[in-house]
Amino acid sequence: MSGDGRIYEVFARKKRADRFEHIGAVAAPNEQLARVYAWQTYDEAKWFEMTVAPRDAFAAVNRPQAPFTLGEATT
User: Fold this and answer.
1) Residue 58 has what pLDDT?
2) Distances from the Cα of 11 to the Cα of 48, 64, 71, 73, 75, angstroms
3) 30 touches 70 (CB < 8 A)
4) Are 20 and 13 within 8 A, CB to CB?
5) 7, 21, 56, 59: which has the highest count of C-beta atoms within 10 A?
6) Which of 16-20, 47-51, 62-66 is predicted with the least confidence, judged by mean pLDDT?
7) Partners of 51 in beta bridges
8) Can you tell me whether residue 55 is helix, strand or coil?
9) 23: how many CB neighbours lie within 10 A of its CB?
């Protein structure tokens, strides 16, 4: 993933009754471009709905590290 700005996590669903699923992430300087980048990057499916959220808006509940981090798992 390249680009300047924040990382936005991308979620989508194919039908209204479906749950959102995490389908990837994009880097963008603002939310408006994040929506465009997400739609262009993940347009291989016919999504009913797609949404983006800044990665830093997520908070860990039961782990010391933030969500979407890589590395060794802690117990």
Assistant:
1) 87
2) 11, 24, 23, 24, 27
3) no
4) yes
5) 7
6) 62-66
7) 11
8) helix
9) 17
Q: Are 4 and 49 in contact (CB under 8 A)?
A: no
* Token couple for 58: 């997520």
DSSP β-bridge partners for residue 26: 8
Predicted model pTM: 0.79
CA dihedral sign of residues 58, 75, 20, 17:
negative
**DSSP collapsed to 3 states, 3-49:** CCCEEEEEEEECCCCCCCEEEEEEEECCHHHHHHHHHHHCCCCCCCE
